[in-house]
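Figure 6 in text form: structure in, sequence out.
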């Protein structure tokens, strides 16, 4: 992987920060019943404008998208090309002029957003949907959990009822490209960003 990403960066004359995207697919003939299990892959690269992670100055506005729930199964924790539920959620987001929307799993509990993992600060505890709730096991999710452990902050993987959004002190989203993004509002509810700011600072220190 290190060799191939280096070659691709050089071919595209990218010397600094970049985003690599690896797509792995089943190669060979056959439809739903493959004739072989040969694997193919596509590696893409795109330059990034900034070297670190800057916390968003203006908090984002979110809502819950409940028209199509995300199923919970052994594939749920992986990022796959089966992205139709996320596309539909993003269309809802655009139609309602939101910055982001939160998806529910098939049981009606919080799962993730269209592009990020979710963290909720409630009564001085940090919660994130457990992998058993169907969320993607994101790279930045894992980094935030490690930072919480390092700095001895209580972080709990849990089943999270969306009603907690009306009472939480903070809500923030994480992914490998944007780092930590704090949520300012959900409906009429407004949030702080103290914990999100701490994680953003620790994240940049660790780079």
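Output sequence:
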């Amino acid at each position: 992987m290190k060799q191939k990403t280096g070659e691709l960066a050089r071919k595209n004359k990218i010397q600094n920060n970049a985003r690599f995207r690896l797509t792995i697919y089943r190669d060979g003939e056959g439809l739903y019943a493959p004739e072989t299990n040969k694997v193919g892959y596509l590696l893409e690269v795109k330059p990034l404008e900034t070297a670190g992670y800057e916390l968003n100055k203006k908090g984002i506005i979110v809502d819950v998208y409940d028209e199509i729930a995300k199923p919970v199964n052994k594939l749920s924790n992986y990022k796959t090309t089966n992205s139709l539920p996320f596309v539909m959620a993003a269309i809802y987001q655009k139609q309602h002029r939101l910055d982001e929307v939160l998806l529910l799993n098939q049981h009606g509990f919080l799962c993730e957003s269209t592009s990020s993992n979710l963290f909720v600060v409630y009564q001085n505890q940090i919660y994130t949907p457990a992998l058993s709730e169907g969320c993607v096991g994101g790279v930045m999710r894992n980094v935030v959990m490690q930072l919480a452990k390092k700095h001895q902050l209580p972080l709990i993987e849990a089943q999270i009822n969306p009603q907690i959004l009306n009472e939480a002190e903070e809500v923030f989203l994480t992914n490998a490209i944007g780092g930590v993004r704090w949520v300012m509002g959900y409906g009429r509810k407004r949030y702080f960003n103290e914990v999100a700011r701490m994680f953003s600072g620790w994240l940049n220190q660790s780079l």
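Caption detail: The two ends are 20 Å apart (CA to CA).
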